[in-house]
Specification:
The complex is a heterotrimer. By secondary structure, chain A is of the alpha+beta class. Chain A has ten helices and 20 strands. A six-stranded mixed β-sheet of chain A has the order 6-7-8-3-9-10, with helices on both faces. In chain A, strands 11-12-13-20-14 form a five-stranded mixed barrel. Chain A has a five-stranded antiparallel β-sheet with strand order 15-19-16-17-18. Classes of the chains: A alpha+beta, B mainly alpha, C mainly alpha. The structure holds adenosine-5'-diphosphate (ADP) and magnesium ion.
Chain lengths: 370, 375, 263
């Protein structure tokens, strides 16, 4: 099996007057594990359904390998889709489910059975082949769905939140397994999820989506360290957010006049002096001390200290804001609770971006009083 | 349609559409349309064309008889062939030469008459072909007796519907909400058996009750109001009430099952909750159970009314010719006795219109939509 | 107090149900009893002699048997036709959207709500235009017109419960539409198809009001029963009734037991 490249050229989707996906350009490399991450309702499933051929784009075209897919029906595309609810066939046994695609192609029964058994082995379901679907556990069904999709030797496997029905433990286990299957087969995986943990751990590259628009496409590391929009910065990982106005830009460093005083951080591209902006700084790069070493600091009062095991979680207040810092045990050791404290951060560890929409992180937002 | 083709492909989609199209066009719409069309063509039995055709018929037959006589000698009246033109009593005797001449003369005269009538028939036909063929005369021609029969049928059907509703609501209630699984199963079977037994058998079963020496008269004889031996009995078949009873019996279960089916989908906790809140029994029915059961009640009423009003089997078997005809029997006669299909179609279409009106009325009263009816 | 009045109304309800069931069964029981009485015309009050003689007499009723064969001949066509039409309509109605389907739906269930005799009449009137006289053929068409609505409703109810991704999944795995229909849709619909075929058979076999108006000079079992019931009737018909009741009872009990057992 060899994966193929998937290229979306200004593809958009509409349901009546409602635009579910804005014109989007996207290149997924052959053999890549590519994730699309975004809150629910942002248009992820819609993109997958266009790639697999169940939905015609309102505009633009999709190419898989060398072939433009316009006008190619779903059953003739080199893709296989793993549905959000798996859509296994309840009237067939495990092996019949897996061999379904081969049966549809007219492959003889012995050959079908042989191929199905190979895949059953690949997804570690040996011994379950005669069972009916409703006799399987959630994880086993998951594997049947993967094997059924792989049986047709697709160039591209499309997965629509396949792990969302599983409990946490199993989910983590299946992540590793899926990643391994992808490596072994070399098939291009396009994986959809609203769970950032899944996207960041498994993927070669991640696209972050919001409101039918892809906001950033990058490796996991770069998504985390160099978010390109306020939405990505607030949706992926935790961030402290401070608002203000840009007063100076110099050598790629922006100065933000914030409610907590003047602070500096890396300038995002296309940031100009005088605009409303946000400074993002991750909890783990904050340092807490009595005497700050630089002027990129804010005076704070400790509110709470939570021991999280590997690190210590501090909640601090600065004026009406509350800030969060993650300290290593060593860094935590020297702090005296009763003194007045400061947090500070290196200029390179913070990023200043023009204000924009933030992700709805469900109460984790740092703005206490807005 | 696009979605359908994407999944089933155009050959299957075409096939399904063709099946539905045939069903709709040839089995449903076209027959009703042609029946309505026929009902709007008035066939005047007394007009000159019909008379001319009848006269021609008579003349042809007469001429045929005379030609036969000429060849084989005249037939005798006693053989059953009464010939009004042959007043001669000696017709049984041998024909003389004179007689033969007279007969030939008569045949020629008849021939002339036929020719002139043929011309007239042709003319009348042409006139008729030019006339506008449609009128509502078949509908307005319904005489007093037939209109009365129709009214009686509708009133009976309404009565049957009301009786069935009153009797079936408690039954459905007991079945759906007041009994455990075993009792429900037994009761369900007890009601399903008479429902599933052939309609005619259920009607036929009542003859054992209503017969001259049937159950009712025997009971009367026991208490001394009748005497079986001397046939001093009541002829029950004379009373329209028998038709009503059997109509109720035959179609009542078409009311139970729709009501039961919708009532069974009501969450019993809702009733419990209402009772906990102190609602009286009638209020629980009025505010919770009946609103939920409305679609079922509507279907039950529609089916019962339609079946009762359109029943041919019950009056056909029960009246035994001892009561005035029922509306459905009138229709039957128009088709198969007096052979006036145009009028029969008009009556049949009237019955259909009444049922449609009833359905619309029920949907308005209960505030249900067509889609809800078939659950 | 409250419980006392409630139990009283429950008692009243039970009494009423008992009377209702009695009412439903009494005539049938009388008919069955009369079948075992040697008295003719059939009677339960003029009891002469317990006999089974009326049952073998059924086999001598040549005309009745001919009519019974006609009933089967008709059903052989009506059942597959109704299931096919009902299936097609159910698929169109569940898979299509928009106003037009509501109109289509209204038209397709209208035969169920039309008096049977009207259907029979409309059919013979229509076919007379093409020189087709009333016979088994017109009866088949008239019956199919309304019987097909029942399979349609049964199959629609099942289709609405289908996971809509099943068919997409099959397509996605490369199934052709025919293959998908045979391997996914039909197996899913099979229980509904079987029960609607059984229902269609029953309805065709037992139909009288539509049949008597569309069959012309021929007969079916039901038209023959009606003809005999109207004339001087003999307990032979009661014997036939006993068979009807027995068969119905058997199937009802089997059906109920199976349903209980499945729970
Ligand atoms: N068939 C449809 N008709 C109308 N709107 C739809 C349809 N499918 C999806 N949508 C809308 O499009 C948007 C994107 O949906 P989807 O792609 O399913 O989101 P998700 O990212 O959760 O998978 C949502 O707002 C949804 O309500
Ligand atoms: Mg989705």
């Amino acid at each position: 099996m060899r994966g193929k490249e998937v290229v979306l050229d200004k593809v958009s989707a509409k349901f009546g007057d409602f635009t579910a996906v804005n014109p989007t350009d996207l290149v997924v490399n052959a053999g890549e594990f590519f994730s699309i991450l975004g809150p629910s309702g942002c248009g992820k499933t819609t993109i997958l359904r266009m790639i697999s051929g169940f939905l015609n784009p309102a505009s633009g075209s999709i190419r898989i390998g060398e072939d433009i897919m316009t006008g190619v029906p779903a059953n003739q595309r080199p893709t296989a889709l793993i549905f959000q609810n798996l859509a296994l066939f309840p009237y067939m046994s495990v092996w019949e489910n897996i061999a379904f695609g081969l049966e549809a192609r007219g492959v003889g029964k012995t050959e079908r059975r042989k191929r199905a058994m190979e895949l059953i082995e690949l997804v570690a379901l040996s011994g379950e082949e005669m069972k009916k679907i409703d006799e399987l556990s959630g994880g086993q069904r998951q594997r049947v769905a993967v094997a059924r999709a792989l049986a047709v030797e697709p160039a591209v496997l499309l997965l629509d939140e396949p792990l969302s029905a599983l409990d946490l433990k199993l989910r983590q286990h299946m992540r590793a397994e899926l990643r391994q299957i992808q490596r072994m087969t070399g098939v291009t995986f396009i994986y959809i999820t609203h769970d950032q943990g899944e996207a960041l751990t498994m993927s070669d590259r991640v696209a972050v989506m919001n409101h039918g628009r892809i906001e950033q496409i990058d490796t996991s590391d770069r998504i985390y360290d160099h978010p390109s929009t306020p939405f990505v910065a607030s949706f992926v990982g935790e961030n402290n957010i401070l608002r203000g106005r840009v007063t100076a830009i110099e050598n790629g460093i922006a100065t933000l006049e914030s409610e907590l005083g003047s602070l500096r951080g890396r300038k995002a591209p296309e940031l100009a002096v005088g605009v409303d902006a946000m400074l993002f700084v991750r909890p783990e790069v904050l340092k807490i001390s009595e005497q700050p070493q630089s002027d990129n600091s804010v005076a704070v009062k400790p509110v709470r200290r939570d021991m999280e095991g590997a690190f210590v979680n501090w909640v601090l207040s600065a004026g009406k804001r509350s800030l969060v810092a993650h300290l290593t045990k060593a860094a935590d050791a020297g702090i005296d609770h009763d003194r007045s404290l400061h947090i500070e951060f290196a200029v390179d560890d913070a990023i200043v971006m023009a204000s924009g929409e933030l992700a709805d992180t469900g109460g984790q937002d740092d703005e206490a009083s807005d | 349609m696009k979605h359908l083709i994407e999944i089933y492909g155009w050959p299957l989609t075409t096939f399904f559409s063709a099946c539905v199209g045939l069903w709709l066009a040839i089995l449903i719409v076209a027959p009703q349309f042609f029946m309505a069309e026929l009902s709007l063509r008035f066939e005047d039995r007394g007009d000159r064309l019909t008379q001319t055709v009848n006269d021609l018929d008579v003349l042809y037959r007469h001429k045929g008889t005379m030609e036969y006589d000429l060849e084989h000698g005249p037939a005798c009246n006693t053989m059953g062939m009464i010939n009004p033109m042959m007043t001669d009593d000696s017709s049984c005797a041998q024909l003389g030469v004179e007689g033969k001449l007279r007969l030939e003369q008569q045949i020629l005269e008849t021939e002339d008459l036929i020719q002139s009538l043929l011309v007239e028939e042709q003319n009348l036909k042409e006139i008729k072909a030019q006339q506008y063929p449609y009128s509502v005369k078949n509908y307005t021609a319904m005489t007093g007796l037939h209109a009365w029969t129709l009214t009686k049928t509708v009133v009976f059907a309404l009565t049957v519907t009301l009786i069935a509703l009153a009797a079936c609501y408690p039954v459905a209630y007991a079945l759906a909400l007041r009994s455990g699984p075993v009792k429900t199963a037994i009761l369900f079977t007890a009601l399903f058996v008479p429902y599933a037994v052939n309609e005619l058998m259920r009607i036929y079963a009542w003859l054992t009750v209503f017969d001259l020496h049937g159950l009712l008269n025997t009971l009367l004889a026991i208490v001394g109001f009748a005497a079986l031996a001397s046939d001093e009995v009541i002829v029950w078949y004379r009373f329209p009430g028998t038709v009503l009873v059997v109509l109720v019996y035959t179609y009542i279960l078409f009311m139970v099952f729709p009501i039961y089916n919708t009532m069974a989908t009501l969450d019993p906790n809702q009733v419990e909750a209402a009772r906990d809140l102190g609602a009286k029994t009638w209020r629980i029915h009025w505010r919770i159970i009946i609103p939920h059961t409305k679609p079922g009640i509507a279907v039950g009423c529609i089916m019962t009314f339609m079946l009762a009003a359109g029943s041919f089997s019950v009056p056909h078997i029960i009246t035994r010719g001892l009561q005035p005809k029922w509306f459905t029997q009138l229709i039957y006669d128009k088709f198969f006795e007096s052979s006036n299909w145009n009028l029969g179609s008009a009556y049949s279409f009237t019955l259909l219109l009444i049922c449609i009106l009833f359905i619309l009325a029920i949907m308005a009263i209960f505030g249900v939509k067509l889609r809800q009816l078939a659950r | 107090m409250k419980t006392e009045t409630m139990s009283r109304s429950d008692v009243m309800l039970n009494v009423f149900i008992g009377m209702f069931v009695m009412f439903m069964f009494l005539p049938l029981m009388l008919m069955v009893m009369a079948a075992f009485n040697s008295a003719s015309p059939p009677s339960v009050t003029d009891w002469q002699e317990l006999t089974l003689a009326w049952f073998p007499r059924l086999a001598e009723e040549d005309r009745l048997i001919g009519c019974l064969q006609n009933s089967f001949r008709i059903a052989v066509f009506v059942v597959p036709a109704s299931v096919l039409l009902g299936l097609s309509a159910a698929i169109l109605l569940t898979r299509l959207e928009g106003r037009a389907t509501n109109v289509l739906y209204a038209f397709l269930i209208s035969p169920m709500l039309t008096p049977g005799i009207v259907l029979g009449i409309a059919t013979i009137v229509f076919w007379r235009n093409f020189g087709v006289a009333a016979d088994l053929f017109t009866t088949i068409l008239a019956q199919t017109a309304f019987i097909a609505s029942f399979p349609m409703l049964i199959i629609m109810a099942r289709l609405q419960r289908q996971d809509r991704f099943q068919e997409e999944a099959a397509l996605d795995l490369g199934a052709s539409p025919f293959f998908l229909f045979r391997r996914i849709t039909l197996p899913f619909l099979l229980p509904a198809i079987v029960s609607s075929a059984a229902l269609a058979f029953l309805m065709s076999f037992e139909n009288y009001n539509t049949t008597v108006f569309s069959i012309g000079g021929s007969c079916t079992l039901t038209t023959e029963i009606a003809a005999q019931a109207r004339k001087a009737h003999t307990p032979v018909i009661n014997a036939l009734g006993v068979i009807f009741v027995a068969v119905t009872l058997m199937f009802s009990v089997i059906y109920t037991l199976r349903k209980q057992w499945e729970k």
